[in-house]
Amino acid sequence: MKEKALVFEPYTGFIAGAQKVTHNVIDILKTKYDVTLILRNSKSPNVDELKLKSKYKHIPFEFFLSKVFGRGSSDSRSNGLAIKVGMLFLMAVLNVYVFINVLIYRPSLVYTYDPRGLILSGLLLKLLNTKLVWHLHGPINFGKTMNKILLSSPDIILVPSNYIKESINSGSYDSKINVIYNGFKIDLVDKDKSTEFFEMLYVGTIVPHKGLHNILIALKGFKNSAITLNILGEYHGEYKIEYKIYIESLLAELPKNIKVNFLGWVSEPNKYYAKSSLLLFSSVIDGVINFNDFDLPIRI
What confidence score (pLDDT) does residue 195 get? Predict the structure, then answer.
């Protein structure tokens, strides 16, 4: 009989990078464990695909989750009293909920990811003999006390790069942090040579810290080359309206030889990889965008 594992998935919405990694982790866990998923009670590409992978149950209080966190972004400008009370309520009841499920299922490990997953599911598991694995996909910037709580709760912390490990400044927690680079299975395809343009590809959610604006600013300097930029992703996060306005202002400044296609969220991007000459990564670590007398902070 296989050992058991619980996976707490705190996100809904589209399947972005962290969600795709979680899907891969679940596939790996299923080779050794009897896996039960604890999912958001909502309809979305991420949740719908996860339901096909393994048996599952729903996280309670979806109404409050959607009000406090929305469908996926960890950003939130809504820091009023009602939101703070709602967050404390969810932290309390969902940690107890997961604690009870661990008592019922007796899993050997619990897996979750990013700060939201940990604060909603993993704060009480030190009281039980269950290994908590936390996958952190970006730096944490919650202050010394909160960072200490987050780092002390898991038994194992997975990060996708040495940069994130070093940014944590983990000190005594360093021995529990393991760097495992993200891997994605992309079916091998032949390069499509039929296109007459130099094609660039941006894949990811369209949020300030992903740096799409830097790509567009750089493209302004290409006055004579015929270039096509294909963008796979959706605007997302707390500043999506302001950021979209800013991006549209940059598009208006591009020379006519630059063509930009917004193709939205794509479930099978292989054909775009095949015909692209260049895949772009433009993440911004820290900075401020100023437009229309509005300062938009960027920090990952």
Answer: 55
What is the Cβ-side half-sphere exposure of residue 101, based on CA atoms within 13 angstroms?
A: 24
Phi, psi (degrees; rounded to nearest 5) at 182: -65, 135
Q: Are 64 and 90 within 8 A, CB to CB?
A: yes
CA–CA gap between residue 176 and residue 188 (Å, rounded): 35
Is this model's pTM higher than 0.90 or not? no
Q: Coil, helix or strand for 278?
A: strand
Q: CA distances (Å), 263 to each of 202, 232, 235, 252, 269, in order?
A: 10, 5, 11, 18, 10
271 close to 186: Cβ distance less than 8 angstroms = no
Question: Cβ atoms within 10 A of the Cβ of 122, count?
Answer: 24
The neighbour count for residue 144, using CB atoms within 10 Å, is 7
Q: Domains of the chain, with CATH numbers?
A: 3-179 (3.40.50.2000), 198-299 (3.40.50.2000)
